[in-house]
From TrEMBL:
Record-given protein name: SHRM1 protein
Subcellular location: Cytoplasm, Cytoskeleton
GO BP terms in the entry: actin filament organization
InterPro entries: ASD2_dom, Shroom_fam
Tagged with keyword Cytoplasm: yes
Residue ranges of domain ASD2 in the record: 1-173
Length: 173
């Protein structure tokens, strides 16, 4: 019954992932339309700023999500430490935790810098775009970020349930 429930949950997650991937493709198409619009109205250096911001948005958000996920796994492993865990493994986890914490703080700084750059890009676009086009741009940035987060979350859940299912199947005769 538990195996059946895990398989059912995995199937639901795969279906959700397909929906999110479909939304991501639609968002990407909107992004391409927006890119063409921005390229048509902005000066080359302004367009380059826009493109760098959009490219960095995905990279920085993905980096933050990845580091947060890895940090959570290390924290979970640290919670499982008991008297039987050898000192070398404990030390390794502590060191990884410190490193990942520092890296995540650095990534947060990158995100703050990116947020400031988004303000600059918005100000540039406000000179050229209509209010509706500017709203479309802001909506695009929000949706792109949300979809990245949702995709990463679904991938993590799928991975977790797959591991649970494998472990359960191995434990049964």
């Amino acid at each position: 019954e538990l195996i059946s429930n895990l398989r059912s949950r995995l199937q639901t997650l795969w279906e959700e992932r397909e929906l999110v991937l479909s939304e991501a493709r639609e968002c990407s198409a909107r992004g391409e339309e927006l890119e063409a619009l921005v390229q048509g109205v902005c000066k080359p250096n302004e367009f380059e700023r826009y493109m760098m911001f959009i490219g960095d948005l995905e990279k920085v958000v993905s980096l933050l999500l990845c580091l947060s996920s890895r940090l959570a796994r290390v924290q979970n492993a640290m919670r499982r430490i008991d008297g039987n865990t050898d000192a070398e493994e404990k030390q390794s986890l502590v060191e990884r935790h410190k490193l990942l914490s520092r890296q995540r703080e650095d990534a947060k700084d990158l995100k703050e810098n990116l947020d400031r750059r988004e303000g600059v890009v918005s100000a540039i676009l406000a000179k050229y775009l209509t209010d509706q086009q500017l709203q479309d741009y802001r909506g695009f940035v929000q949706v792109k970020t949300s979809l990245l987060i949702e995709q990463k979350d679904l991938e993590e859940q799928i991975k977790f349930f797959q591991e649970q299912l494998e472990n359960l199947e191995k434990s049964l005769p």
